[in-house]
Amino acid sequence: MVSLSSLLLLSSLLVNPVLSTKTTLDPDTHRELLLNGRPQIGLWKSLLKEQKLKDEQALLLSTEKNAQQPFLSSTKKELFEPHCFPQRISHFDDTVNGTFCQRYWINTSFYREGGPVFLLDGGETSGKDRVPFLEKGILQILSNATNGIGIVLEHRYYGESVPVKSFSTDDLRFLNNKEALEDSAYFIENFKPPPSILSSSSSDALHPNNTAWVYYGGSYAGARAAHMRKEYPHLVWGAIASSAVTHAQINFPQYYGPIQQYAPEGCIDTLQTAIELIDHLLDQPEPIPRYLKGLFGLEELVGNEDFADVISGPLGYWQAKNWDPKVGSNEFYNFCNTLTAGGAGSKVGLIRIPASIINYGKYIKENVVARCPRSEGKPASDIEDCFGTSVDSKFVETDLEQTWRLWIFQVCTQWGYFMPAPLEGPRIISNKLTLEYTSKICRQAFPPGKHFSVPEWPDVEEVNRRGDYEIEYDRLAFIDGDRDPWRPMTPQSDWAPRRKSSVNRPVHLIFDGVHHYDENGLEDHTEEPPRIKDVHALEVSFIQEWIAQFHEQKGR
Ligand SMILES: *[C@@H]1O[C@H](CO)[C@@H](O)[C@H](O)[C@H]1NC(C)=O
Ligand SMILES: *[C@@H]1O[C@H](CO)[C@@H](O)[C@H](O)[C@H]1NC(C)=O
Ligand SMILES: *[C@@H]1O[C@H](CO)[C@@H](O)[C@H](O)[C@H]1NC(C)=O
Ligand SMILES: *[C@@H]1O[C@H](CO)[C@@H](O)[C@H](O)[C@H]1NC(C)=O
Fold this sequence. Notes:
Layout: H1 4-10, H2 27-34, H3 41-68, E1 83-88, E2 99-107, E3 117-121, H4 132-135, H5 138-146, E4 149-153, H6 177-190, E5 213-218, H7 220-231, E6 238-242, E7 249-251, H8 257-262, H9 265-282, H10 288-295, H11 304-311, H12 316-319, H13 331-339, E8 346-348, E9 351-353, H14 355-367, H15 379-387, H16 404-415, E10 416-418, H17 435-438, H18 440-445, H19 461-464, E11 476-481, E12 507-510, H20 530-553
Parallel strand pairs: 3-4, 3-5, 5-6, 6-11, 7-10, 11-12
Antiparallel strand pairs: 1-2, 2-4, 8-9
One 2-acetamido-2-deoxy-beta-D-glucopyranose binds near residues 1, 94, 95 and 97.
Protein name: Serine carboxypeptidase
Keywords: Carboxypeptidase, Glycoprotein, Hydrolase, Protease, Signal
GO molecular function, one term: serine-type exopeptidase activity
């Protein structure tokens, strides 16, 4: 083992953002395309390629400019700079002993000696996307209320916290729950604030023996928050698990339930009727299916399943809603408005195509298909490139830009959450979306390696044996949104045992809430809508009580 003191020295070094030349899609595009685990990987890759060209041109331009003005810095200084914690590549595999830089962002401006540390787990995205929660969201709110420190910790493999040289099946073998849990534990146990940030405190003042650490996570990271509190109670004094998916499940058609239940009724009725007819038309002999696809701008797309997958894309916008329109997307309602706009239908042979399908097609053509970059002279293959899944070779690139592989790998190995159509009842997605089809990517993208093979089906037991729907602990809070499509996988699912809220085991369901609605905040908190002010006030009140308990127990 490398000695700890030499590791900790490193932690005060800033990660230099200028050194990073990795091209990434802007977070909105990235999130949108990877929403709910059914990525349009081909489109994602085409857009990445375009972005790369743009980046290269921009870099060329800026170096030319800098040559003329040598003192002008080419990168804007961000308010928050990431720091580097030397993390072990593996906590369990003795054949690899190195460390990598796990990034974190910290703010100590509210801190007074004896105050707690709030650690926000970045989960399955770049930690940078979570920095707003430090500036004006949950970390800032709780730190201000308790004189605490806020930290965003990037998850291994995401953003720039990458311990490997590729995202091949073998190199992804350290991306799992056990390693990620141990990362957080090791971080909490060994964290020393960079002297430039906090110089006065003694060297072990922030050790969990002396300071209350409170873990926060939303969604996947919410499950981690619950697991951390239960499995490392000596390190994690309290935890808030927001939209915490503590129940993993291979087959997850229930994702669509809350959308059907809570989205505008007229929109859902129209969609259900349209989907039924679309499935009927797809079952007819050619040229009817091709004609139908043509209405969506997808005439050249070969697979009926791929077609069904592309047209289900807008449903992901339900999850992307947020009470703050600047953070979330209202696109779901634009989709509904287009779908239900009425108008004239059309006719193919003896079959009447209603206006809803024409409108649906127009929406997909203009908002999804139009984003597929077309090269001169070969439009057909471009559509298949963007949206087809029949060719395995499309999914085998393993360089570090293929970040779509990360969450999919976690899905394929441990979490499941494939979202096929339900086998009975009204549907808002096509019945061509089967479990077989929605899990096909696992076999296409991750051929067996030398050190690791993806199991035939995800080992969801690895998650569920950590507590599942029943997980509970003192000073572990569950916050959910009533109409979150992920609520069926949380301890506040309709299938989970009912809970009674208390200060030590708080549970709260945000009315008209979707996915981790408590995580973000406004600069001026008094401007937040009442239901968000309420949940923040609730969190402040139980956290203050938990911190008081800490001081009482430590005799201070
Ligand atoms: C920390 O937060 C405070 C208050 O929100 C802000 O003024 C300050 O700039 C932040 N500190 C850093 C290092 O970004
Ligand atoms: C890693 O460390 C362990 C324990 O010190 C040692 O047994 C092993 O040989 C080391 N592995 C490598 C690849 O250096
Ligand atoms: C911190 O909390 C106090 C008391 O609620 C509030 O008046 C103040 O505006 C907050 N500060 C920030 C920077 O949010
Ligand atoms: C923390 O407390 C435990 C239990 O009292 C003790 O064994 C350990 O040495 C302490 N660690 C530090 C760094 O103070």
